[in-house]
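Support reply, case 0932

Customer input (verbatim):
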Amino acid sequence: MRVAILAHEKFPDRAKTALGVLRYADYDAAAVLDRETAGDRVSDFVPDVQDAPIVEGMADLEASEVDALLIGIAPIGGDFDESWREDVRTALEYGCDVIAGLHYFLEDDEEFARLAAENDCDLWDVRKPPEDLTVSEGVAGEVDAEVVLTVGTDCSVGKMTVSMELARDAREAGYDAAVIPTGQTGIMIEGWGNPIDRVVSDFTAGAVEEMIVEKGDEHDYLFVEGQGSIVHPAYSAVTCGILHGSMPDRLVLCHVAGRDAVHGYESFSLPSIETYVDLYESLSDPVSEAPVVAGALNTAHLEDDEAREAVDDYAAALDAPATDVIRFDTDEVLEALLE
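Our regenerated output:
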């Protein structure tokens, strides 16, 4: 399927959904929509993902060039920006499906619903959870697969990317590994999953457990995409729900090099790495004894020498192997996870 990816004024640094889709999904990218960088190409900014031209809007594309418009931005709160309306309207008039991972459901928008019906288009609200979810039964730990959960020091530290990279590298090494998607980007990439941050709180652990049980006897290793952070003033609840629902065997702690305050809540300082290890392991212990056995550090903003030194310092703080999964190999981390 050929997709146009909406990333207005956010590409590449603040369009993590767009980057995730360009890096991992099976879609063919027809274009990225970004008013600020129109005229450039994706490869001018990010060399290691699928390349595509950057244009101002859907009107710059022919209807025959694209099958779907994908909203590649995940703003805080998940709201729909009215400046995107013209692009969504044009896409639907072209007969394109629209894929969105917002808390604002496009199918509930009167104009979009009408245009979708008139032009035989699908509106896929990725963050709309299934209606038959239940509370956890506490059985995720009974599956045959070893469960690895990525946890974070903050939101937007790369937990989805780390899950995808580790699962891919494990498969390339000959292991039977799969990803359990819990957020909108992972769901768009994998084509299935539960949007945990939209699930009623009582059902959060159950929604994760359901996916573990569904896939747990089909694969040897499951890499669960974590969300938020246990110390995040807004998102800690979903973090705890995923941790207890997945009942993991091992944890990978993800961090951004040099970050010392909660993203978007800068009055809240991040604790020490040692504190995070203790918090996650202590919270996990009553449900499943899951140690932090490896770390993943996002060093995208550092030069090569600085990045290597930062990874070494992070590994020392963790007393465990660590890497930047995009920049460096994952051999030592996988050895710790798949032993």
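We compared this against your earlier run and they match. Two observations from our side: The CA atoms of residues 260 and 266 lie 9 Å apart. The chain has a mean pLDDT of 96. Please reopen the case if you see a mismatch on your end.
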